Amino acid sequence: MEPPQSFQQDGSYKENSIHVQLDPDAQLDPEEDVDVMEDELVQELESQAAGFVGKASELQWLRRLQLKAGHTGEASGEHQSPYSGSSANAEISLQNTQGWERHQQHGSSNRTNTNVSSFYLDNDDLRPDLSVQAFDLPSHQTAERLLNSYLTTIQATFPMLAESPFKNQFEQLYASPPRPSGTTNKWLALLNLVFAIGRRHLDLTEEDASLDNADHGVYWSRAHVLGLEGFHAVGHADITQVQSTGLLALYLLTVGHVNRAWVVMGSSLRLAHALGLHVRNESRTSTVVRKEIWLRMWWGVYSLERHLSTIVGRPNFVNESYCSAPLPLPLSTDQLSDEALVQTLHQRHRTPAFHPNEPHKDIEVAERPNEGSYLKSMIQLSITTQKVMTELYSIAAVIKPWRHIQQVVTNLCDELEEWLAALPADLNFSLHVDHVSTKLERERLILNMQYISTKILITRPCVCRFGSHEQGESENFDKQTARACVWAAKKLVLLLPAHSHVSYLCKIGPWWSVVHSLMQALIVLLLEMSYGTVHFPEDGEEILVSIKKLIRSLKAMGKNNKVAERAYTVAFQVLRGLASKLDAEISDLIWEDIAHSTAPSLDVRVPNVDSSQQYPIQTMEDEHVSGM
């Protein structure tokens, strides 16, 4: 498959490739609703649990897709399907679009409750077990595994802890039972949250053998009893409270309670502001090492709050005009203990992260890229993603003329590609680098997936522009940008290993929200399918293959991940609805669904499936995961 002409072979956006000369009266996307409050949010407990979901969230995209699958005009019967070998699918797509526009105009009463679209677990009961023995500890062997699971998989992305001091206190705790002096209940609560997150990771990767019997809920309950409940609401701000609320939000994210996580994360962010972590630290009494640790903590809080805001489609509450904190130094955790090295780099000119003179130019260090370089790159990408949320998905963006939005999309795509080009070689997933450190494999994969997620956020508004009656350069821009969005979703599919080994993504990827990433890509591909693959008329079957791979991955992950299980059920239901209208062949998926009893049995006739038509299993060696 050839990439769109206005994009590079790897899907990157060509600078100045499209010169937009648009009709000033061009209308906004008919599918893009203004965010509005709905009555059930204040009247129904289930809707309150899920909370308001903004249009940047894949949950809103899924909601529209559910309506589309259930209410659009018939696409099968008198028309040929794009999945049966015909490329003449524009007429099908146009009729689908016109039917959807009629629904938008006349069918507001048929709006789907957002709660129905959610595959997260906020509706599930979440109560700590108050009968737990709060001061019990796991065996030293189990504790080390839990701590290592946390530190090696998530600390570098969201550095809530001062790693070296925390590890030292951990060793003192087990070296001097039952409890060394200076170990407070607050610190023990912090430790149990780390245990809970580490245990959750090991559960998802099926590496929980030889651990003590306590599950992640036990550790969370101990943290709750030890002091989480209510202390951050009325107490004075301190570093431990910032860490505890941040870790609690992180734990809630890992167990699928994203609305709760977002609310708690707001407390952590306010506590961080109350301590002044968002501004430059000019204290003469703090060492440069401590300043750097606190700086990284701020960026961990910022990044997690931004990530949660993207998932639920809500505003990020960091006012950039008030922030003067610089980006972290490109130093590893071990190098942070070198006071002289940190001092040397700290004395160099460091501009605030939100107001840089050279935003993508890094400080040169002799060593190869490390955790500090990775964190800096993640933060820069987070800042770009926040711009996307503000400039494309806010209320202010909705009232802008479409020609303005197209220019914003162009600028954001350029900024994203500048970020990619500036990545250190060992972190740049678009390059085939010889002798890349295996230590950075996790960081490269996470950066790759976050890049794809941001590209999808930038370009997705153009996917739904088909049938908007635009012409010329404006129409061409929308089509090429929509192709880039679908291309990005397909790139994510190439990162997936064989469906029987999907734990790979949880072992070295962003395991805390991997379902979010998969669903973003899946919904984009389902949207393209719903339009009759109008942006890729030559590749309808290939897009269906990508959809099937994502569906199978969610199903496989659902064995020990309830969020993935629910996402599979919801997405498969949408796919069945679209397949029946477009005459798409998914009998193999239906067979597998019934055979494994992952979802309720369907009252549907399933034809015999030829083994030669079965989904081809790909291994990671079959594809270059760093580019296309």
UniProtKB/TrEMBL annotation:
Residues 26-40 have a biased composition (Acidic residues). Keywords: Nucleus. The keyword Nucleus applies. GO terms for biological process: DNA-templated transcription. The keyword Membrane does not apply. One of its GO terms (molecular function) is zinc ion binding. Residues 1-40 are annotated as: Disordered. Residues 261-334 form the Xylanolytic transcriptional activator regulatory domain. Residues 1-11 have a biased composition (Polar residues). It holds the Pfam family Fungal_trans. PANTHER family: TRANSCRIPTION FACTOR DOMAIN-CONTAINING PROTEIN, ZN(II)2CYS6 TRANSCRIPTION FACTOR (EUROFUNG)-RELATED. This is Xylanolytic transcriptional activator regulatory domain-containing protein. It comes from Periconia macrospinosa.
